[in-house]
Protein 1
Amino acid sequence: MKYVRGFCWDSQGCYRSVWLGILGLLVMNVLMSGCAFVRGEVGEPFSEEGLQTVKPGKTSRQEVARQFGAPDEIVQANGHEIFHYRRFDSKMGWLLFLSRLNIGSDHLWVFFNEQGIVDDVVFGNRTKDVEFQIWPFGD
Amino acid sequence: MCSKKVILGVLVSLSVIVLTGCDFRRVVVNNPLVAESLERLVPGQSTVQDVARVLGAPDEIEEGAQGMVFRYRYGDSKTMRVNFGWLLRIFLPVAPSMNLGKGEGETYILHVAMRPNLTYDHSVIQPPPDPPHFGFWPF
């Protein structure tokens, strides 16, 4: 190993300082660009206990409203009045020049008969599958 | 040998710097719709609960010509942007913006028709469009 004009000259004939400079540049670039993990939620999660209280043939419209609050939407279809409750969850991962935002939604649909008693309940939980991801390519 | 390594290092650094002037962004809403899962539904027999078990709760419910229609959505969008002004940040105190960018998005939709007695009737899945691609050239 010898020194030429202040640079370290190794056995392979390369300037180490060049590589250190490149490494420093890359690290600086990463630090300047940074990363972020951001989460956004709209609406309260549906609790298992709350869902258990809604029983077809027994629970009334008022009891459903007491449990979950006013619905986000009321749909009239096929002689049914349907209360629709929604919840959204989003997770974003961002690193340098790559980012991915995943959004999932939960939906609770409560079908009432003409007497205002629960006829059917449909609940889907997709927010549990929402993950933080950075890689935007592939599936 | 030395010059090759130095050139490689410089090229790698430049690529990283240029890439950090790029943006790859992806937004995914909900889970992909799987057409095969519909094969488990039997017209006239499968109930609302069976449909929910296979597909989850729908995103929308509407009144159909007979019965009702459950609608499921899956969204995927990809955006890419290149800021050619980023390179000037090495030489200038401020980096002017010189952006070229393009975004593509697709929404996949599945309709499930339910009979008046709330059993499964048929489903229509939109033929999958070309998945969105990353590309920055807007012209």
Note: The mean pLDDT of chain A is 86.
Protein 2
Amino acid sequence: MTRNRTAEGGWLIDRASTGSFTFDGRRVPFLAGDTVASALLAAGDPLVGRSFKLHRPRGLFAPGAQEPNALVVLNDGGRLTPNARATTIPATPGLQVRSQNRWPSLRHDAFGLLDLARAVLPAGFYYKTFMWPASQWLRYERLIRKLAGLGPPPRMADPDIYARRHGHTDVLVAGGGPAGLAAALAAGRAGMDVVLAHSGPAFGGGLHDRGDGPHRAWLAETLQALAALPNVRLLANTTVAGYYDNQTLTLAERPCDAAPVGDGKPVERFWQIHAERVVIATGAHERPLLFADNDRPGVMLASAARRYLWRYGVLAGRTPVIFGSDDTIYELAADLTAAGATVRAIVDLRPDPGAAARRAEAAGLPTFAGAMVARAHGKRRVTAAEIWRLGPRPHLVETMQADAILTAGGFGPTLQLHAQARGALLWDPDFRAFLPGPPVADNRSAGGARGVFDLQAAIRDGDEAGANAPLPLRPPPPAADAPAPWDLPNLTGGPRFVDLQNDVADKDIALAAREGYHSIEHVKRYTTLGMGTDQGKLAGPIGLALLAAATGKDIAATGVTTFRPPATPVTFGAVAGGDFGEVGHAIRRTAADAWHEQAGATFIDAGLWRRPQFYPANGKTVGEAYRAEALAVRAGVGMVDVSTLGKIDVSGPDAATLLDRLYCNTLSTLKPGRGRYGLMLREDGRVFDDGVVFRLAADRFHVTCTTGGASAVYQHMEHALQVIWPELDAYATPVSEEWFAVALAGPKARTLLKAIAPDLDVSNAALPMMRLVETRLFGGRARIMRMSYSGELSYEINIGANRGAALWQGLVAAGRPHGLVVYGTEAMGALRIEKGHVTHAEADGRTTPADLGLAGMVSARKDAIGVPAQAFPALQEADRKQLVGLIAEAADARIPVGAQVTAEDLGDQPRPSLGHVTSYAYSAERGRMIALALVRAGRGRIGEAAFVVSPVMGESAAVRIVDPVFIDPEGERLRG
Amino acid sequence: MLLIPCPHCGVRPETEFVYGGDATVRRPDPKTASLDAWAAYIYERDNPKGPHTELWLHASGCHSWLVVERDTVTHAIGQVRQARDAAS
Amino acid sequence: MSAFRDRYSFPALVRHAISGHKRWKPAIRHPEPKPRYDAIVVGGGGHGLATAYYLAKLHGLTNVAVLERGWIGGGNTGRNTTIVRSNYLLEPNAHFYEHSLKLWEGLSADLNFNVMFSQRSVINTCHTPGEMEATMRRYNALRLYGIDAEFLDRAALARRVPDMNLGRDARWPILGALSQPRGGVARHDAVAWGFARGADNRGVDIIQNCEVTGFQRGADGRVTGVLTTRGPIASDKVGVAVAGHSGHVMGLAGMRLPIESHLLQAFVSEPVKPFLDVVVSTGALHFYISQTDKGEVLLGGGLDGYNSYGQRGTMPNIHEVTAAAIEMFPNISRLKWMRQWAGVMDMTMDGSPIIGKTPIPGLFFDGGWCYGGFKATPASGWCFAHTIATGEPHPLNAAFTLDRFGRSAVIDEKGAGPYPKAH
């Protein structure tokens, strides 16, 4: 089954070591060092895939990752990998390989019928049809979607791990071929830190695609020298994917696409490297040649055939026809002949090929000068090549039986990285290729990537690039004494494919041009030219030239499409590098988190924090639990962990002035030891955040803000201090993490406080509302602040975070005799709603102090952020949404989630919204659901009936619009 | 990737910073400014294509607000100063 | 008589197949600019082309030029994630985008060009009770506006999006989702080409590779024309629709705008067979995902967060978006990222667009599209055409005036304040 394996040779294989994998269930033998592609080719059936659109049978075509046809599926389950390039996958024992995009089998693909209909499926056909009847597009589309796509999608989580690395280097060399190796050596010997990234497993690149010679000794010596340099890091199997601004590059290091199982090592590593200088030595790509049915299995680039022969000892065909326009075709013919193939013909586009052709002829190889292969015969494999003589009257010379057609259409540099780094691409008519223009970033292309195709010259060029020598002039162009690949006539009819994967033929490009799509970007998008997995590496230059011809412009003026990262596709897993879940977003926990956990708390996410939402010990459901918790607070005493609130220490001689400018109300008149509620606005006059500010000393304040606003408020403060008023002598320090905070609330709060601080005078006279005392509790420094969020007698105790757990547990123990109930955020919310306190649900970034009923807090006697904006006309409008309370008419009525407020309950009928519910809870005191809401001109509607509605859920309830304070409007409880 | 040379911390990646927008807008004098001047300060920007003077907060570093010269097309970064120094 | 040179249909495809598709007439011409037009639209993106189309079709203005600096549809029209929806909270936005959605529903037929508008649902997942409240509030508002919206519980989500991670152990577990069933995606390039063909076939001159370098003004201050790289072109009405570059172009007229330019990126994987047939958007994880008809998984996330005109992808963003996407769709880890690109967004100070008059008579402005530009394309053109033709805004765009900022009458969908990167 290895009919195409040569008797000897193959730089990368070990003939002593064999194994097998399966392809579509069939056993395929391989030699160690083989790729899946080389083993399949050795086995002899060239059919490896089906094309994207027409499902035409396809074979191995190009070397390396730009292979358009041999895309296969590896593994199954969580490791299922679609679209793997058979050309880059090492053959490993037991590997499961399947063909894709065919049904039921690769050989007999029912969708191959599409090829018969291709006359009605020209480029962009879908823009012209499937429009009738309009309602049926989704149906058409479902079918189109099934036909499209390449491999099957994985449907399970990927069990493998991926790693991310960051690095810095003096010189990054992209490409480990001759130029890249020389560059790395030169830079390494100059003492630079060097990273050399090579896409394949074997450094040397193209050196392995040729026979023996002095270059093999050079390769061995160079690799030895590089290995001896500690400042050079060699990364095999690593592609440079992206070249971003400021010399940042990304590298994908993938030991293997077929993941090794269960050894705990990452299957891929994604590097982000900052390189002072980059040498781009990514080589050149060979261009396909145009002839009818140039996509048949067995048609292959000469560079791929050379690679299979010299690396793996595999013949691309036993009876090949070789077609091209330079002397390399004769070398290839000789090499294949020596390896056991019978070269049926060498077809040279040049009318007068010269000495190499004569030598070949003398050696008995049939040669055809001034001729072309005009058509491939065969369907699932090439069976013959039609050889036509060119000239004024082209004519068929011979239909030569053959099992392969190897094409040498000349090379063009790889330009991806140069272009990603914003370097221009310059059309060079002598090269018939785009060459990299002067680099914009700190890089230089070398070797084939710059058009230096000669081996010795490429090594020299790499050496100079590594040593950072000045960029030499344009390299000498190859001889161009034959028609360009895109100028070949279509002598036989039949489709000539430019982009094999996407089935884009030359006449598709002509059609696009005819229809007015003249920009190459339009043609790309209209025909899908270059949109496949190789991102136009193969098809780009020819497509461009064909378009230029069709529009009568020259190629330089036609321009190129934009090159975008990645240069070679990289798995999402590698890019993410495992930074999801808790690795990507660590959970923040308070000092009492372990206690909450043990108490069985149900947690809720508050940004990165997790907070106890309720304690199931207090009730089976969230609703039961929070009602019980809130009731216990109103009746006795409860406590809640409020550590997540933001805390900022503001100090300095101008601290009071700063706070006066940050808050719309006045804080500078606070006496030490006293606190005040503060309202912070954005400069556009809307409420930004709120919190209580305590003055610790003449020049020092303790500022609290909301959990969600903590970092934004601090940034805002620093902005005020450093940008707006740098003359102020004050300092802000975020101290949220330094303090653990707990709120005690309820009529028995003082009793509990007394129990843990027996020596402290906590009487109403000594510690009235908005007063702060400092003391020691549970071995830590503590601040006790009398303030109330719940509307009850309440204290907030702050203690050093390291003593937080001790304080919490001490309170739990001390509270037991007093019936202490621990409550969560749900009950906390219910208590504050009853009291009419606002949160970010009400201060939603659109509301002003006046909207929230807090207009009285805006002091006109001083400048503060957001105060001048209160004068804007839009802030004065009468029908702005204003904060009101809502109370359910019926005791058993529920307030729907995300409810809107309407005047009438009309089910799903469209009607005006008066406003929306911002927060709601069950009020034990009022014996029914209550809510806060923002309602148009709401304060004027107090007393009116309305409805809270959720048309989405089909729910509604009758409510009455009331004042937003539901309990104790005079505040007697909290001052008691 | 932007790399911003913080005067205190050295060259750091953009992920450590929070962007603060155009650094050339100046808060009007509240004693004299018209409402139009406030609207211009709050809402209008030059938004140039090319060199831009802008604010960055080194949020995962020294908490300095920096005034950074950066090109909005090439993303090349020029002079970096502390906002406090830039104002004086 | 058809308004099109070539009527597109399946029978037409068959007919042309017989002649090898060599007789199709150009969809668009490449005319030389005339010295004067009745109206000039600056910007050959979807919005500018739609404006020209509706000027010709609905307002009888056919002596119109569209001036495009590069190639039509080459800006944000060709650089977005193609999502179409009208699920906005605030009334002006919801009504405008709903009008757009209705135009989308008839667009392929109207343009006789298949723009592949696919109403496959746009689903917003909710990960915290707060997010559920806010999202439900928005969707309840939609229903009151007469716009479709529905709730999907976890079981329904599991059926609709089988590959979504609905595990309770996720970092931000999914509690449920809201969906706009009429939302979906469209083929972005086709929208530009369809409008271009429709406008061109009605007589509009679409002039590519023609950059506007200045505005000509009369003694009374009125606009009298534009200066371009292909010479001066006169017109008494000039509409600018160059979102992404609005600051730059309006700067040529001496105007400062409430706009910053920011980068928005998108990424696609290599194509695979279909597994995701809805658009999923998530607040907590801040990304959106869909699968194209070609089979590519299309991902987008937040802004890069700083002023930029660099139309190219950057590194930190793709890392965050990809990580979030794998968290929610653990099956995509082994798919390969194939292409990354970026568009320059006009980010306004309130997150809502601007369509209307400017202080300069005869000069009209359409821009500030933030994330909403693609889905707005038909309605933007429709409203802008009305505004240019009549000199006054249509009720649908009456709220989107440029002068709203002077009154602080902002339309702040997110409540994020005057910080463009936050919208």
Note: The two ends of chain A are 95 Å apart (CA to CA).
